[in-house]
Amino acid sequence: MPTDPPDAPDDAANPLLASLQRAVEATPDDVALRLHLADLLVEAARGGEAVAHLAAVLQRDPGSSRARELMATALAPPAPAAPAEPDPTARPSGFDWQAAESDLGEVVAPMFAESSAQESEVAAYDVEGSRITLADVGGMKEVKKRLNAAFLAPMRNAELRQMYRKSLRGGLLLYGPPGVGKTFIARALAGELGAGFMTVSMADVLDMYVGNSEKNVHELFETARASAPVVLFLDEVDSIGHKRSRMHSDHMRSTVNQLLLELDSVASDNEGVFVLAATNHPWDVDAALRRPGRLDRTLLVLPPDLEARLAIWESHLRERPVAGIDVKKLAKATDGYTGADIAHLVESAAEIALLEAAESGTVRMIGQADIEAALRELRPSVGPWFETARNVALFANDDGSYDELLTYLRKHRKL
Amino acid sequence: MSDPRLQRVGDLLELRRHAEARAVLQPLLAERPDDPGLHGLLAQALLGEGDHAGALAAANRVVALAPDDEWGHRIAAVTLDRMGQHLEATHAAAEAVRRAPLSWQTHKVYAQVAIDARSMGRDARAAAQRAVQLAPTEADAHFVMGLVAHRLSDDQTAVAAYRRALQIDPQHATALHNLTMLESGLRLGRSAQGLGAALRLAPDDELMRGNVDVLAARFVRRLYFAALLAFVVGLAVALAGGPDGGPTLLSVLVAAALVLGGGGYTLALARSIPVGIRRYVSGRLLRDRFLLLNVVLTASMTIAALVCCLVPGGAGWGLLLLQPIGLANVAAFVWAVTRRR
């Protein structure tokens, strides 16, 4: 169940809220006033208090879409748990810096002036520890097998590697539809290797000033080298390294060249930097990036299999008030749905139960019927991706890059 | 200096990832709602997504925000053309030309929309020529010349223009596609190869895939008529030998010609087709019930023809099969007519 923030400010700190509270107490049937108060409470991150007012509004005006929206926001699940490893940049608990900043934002000038526009916007990259391993990834046996063959086995067996003269050159490109857990797998791989984890969306590396994007790319790799052993995860790699023949900007081309330079450098000089990249559009990735020694191995990550879906359903339902849920049935019914889709289904089901509870004034559990109702509304999000993937696998697979995808499509009668 | 988000939008538009381009544009538009360039990009994204009304609204916004700029008129012209409002499209394109007479792109768009409007072929050709004069090294200028000539049935000019476009940009999928359509004529194998090459460059292109469907239908039709002819000839040869007669030299020769000719042709054609097209067509044959019926009919008539020619008393068998095959053919014919309507 969601709870109020432990250090929620009291009304004395916010005279407007206190005054509104009194006004509502004086005129409890004033729906507009209650709604306004609830709105402000939600804004002030005091969702728990807002719920009671919103329930009262919905009792009087069940059709109020604003009240429903606010109720959904107020009762949204709490933010995910903090990372397992303590974040070195995290503030000590006890004082809400964010709230203070937001309260004083317009009164007190910022402590540090903004950097000049000429400077890079991406100054530093965080290296996280990863405690999850591949054992925490439910199902997906084929993916794990491929990861082991392509990445883990050569890395773990130095003697065998030397005997077979197998080099550690090159990185791995994970591709597949959005929302299937490519980042999670990369993180698990870092945990498996006992290495740090650096993730960066390549779209964030781009900078509007000539030379800065290249600098950012270099800085990223320098940080990785200094933090070895580390898994460097380049997300959305197509946003920087897409087909060069289609690129008109010299600026972008030089950024890609810098990335190629860094990848080659990683391959020859730097031990302990394991480059993983991910994209939803491997067909748009620059061919130069996929040459030997660079991102030369590809791994298709598909929507979760039955076992993985079971794990995902269980994980998403664990913290919620549920009753009578047949997880196996749901896992079977959601073939083709991604982890993100399942998360969305659970959210929608929670919303259905919540609104009903708010309207009736009686709290009830999330049931199988709620999830099935949500399931009827939501189709798998991967449909459009498979449309494009099918065309690519059919018509642009001369070099066999998409054989794995083709096999999957054939097996699932998607051709 | 240029905003990397804008570059990203441009790249996404080039990659035909229109929905993503629109998603990147939304926050930019919220920041700068009066930036005509952003509305122009939005119009392109919406056009790519098939939202013509939205694209036109965005193009009109560009015109309102930057009335002296040709871009808004140019996008409006393309959008109106797609909406079937060809005359209005030519007016918008003419406005773009008036504002930027030295821009090859305005002439290209004028040619492109004028060729869709009735009786404006001469204007379209002049505009295409002007585009080529202004930008002789731009593949798209030659492509539009090819397109206009193609539509005016000036095949020689069209082929030369498409070839020139491909010399400049060997990855110009549409030029390759159109050249294939123009040059291969009724040669199915060559058409399939050209389409395969074009689809390799633009696997998501619906028009090209539509033409593969046309090709598949043509292939099935060809085999169907060959089988029908074989059945008629086989039955005639068998009847000539008498109702209870055995296979004659002539009937064996007819059967051999059928197996070697029909089978050999089908095999050779299948081998010449790129593997992707072959897979696509196989899937299509299974999904399209009409095509499937034609395939079944073709196989039935081929077998019936072989029975007539090679089995003792083949004429009797042939006459027995004549009625169901005839009925099935009539049904297929009626289906074909209603389907065409």
Give a structural overview.
The complex is a heterodimer of chains A (415) and B (341). With 415 residues, chain A is an alpha/beta fold. Chain A is built from 17 helices and six strands. Chain A folds into three domains: 9-75, Tetratricopeptide repeat domain (Serine Threonine Protein Phosphatase 5, Tetratricopeptide repeat, Alpha Horseshoe); 134-300, Rossmann fold; 306-377, Helicase, Ruva Protein, domain 3, CATH 1.10.8. Chain A has a six-stranded mixed β-sheet. The radius of gyration of chain A is 25 Å and the shape is globular. The two termini of chain A are 44 Å apart. Mean pLDDT of chain A is 77; it is low at 1-10, 77-98 and 104-123. The model of chain B has no long low-confidence stretch (mean pLDDT 90). The longest helix of chain B is centred in the middle third of the chain and has 35 residues, at 206-240. Chain B has helices spanning 4-14, 18-31, 36-49, 52-65, 70-82, 86-99, 104-114, 121-134, 139-151, 155-168, 173-184, 188-201, 206-240, 249-272, 275-287, 289-310, 314-340. With 341 residues, chain B is an all-alpha fold. Classes of the chains: A alpha/beta (415), B mainly alpha (341). The A-B interface holds A 203, 206-210, 213, 239, 242-243, 245-249, 251-252, 281, 283-284, 387-388, 391-392, 394-398, 415 and B 1-4, 7-8, 10-11, 14-15, 17, 171, 196, 199-201, 203-204, 209, 274, 276-277, 279-280, 283.
What descriptors fit this protein?
heterodimer, A: alpha/beta, Serine Threonine Protein Phosphatase 5, Tetratricopeptide repeat, Rossmann fold, Helicase, Ruva Protein, domain 3, 3 domains, B: 341 residues, mainly alpha, 17 helices, elongated
Summarize the model shown:
Chain A is of the alpha/beta class.
End-to-end gap of chain A? 44 Å
* CATH homology-level superfamily of the largest domain in chain A: P-loop containing nucleotide triphosphate hydrolases
Structural class of chain B: mainly alpha
- Average pLDDT, all residues of chain B: 90
Largest interface: A-B, 30 and 25 residues
Named CATH topology of the largest domain in chain A: Rossmann fold
Shape of chain B: elongated
Report the count of strand segments of chain B: 0
Tally of separate helices of chain B:
17
Helix/strand class of chain A: alpha/beta
Number of domains of chain A: 3
Strand count, sense and barrel status of the largest sheet of chain B are:
none
How many beta strands in the DSSP annotation of chain A? 6
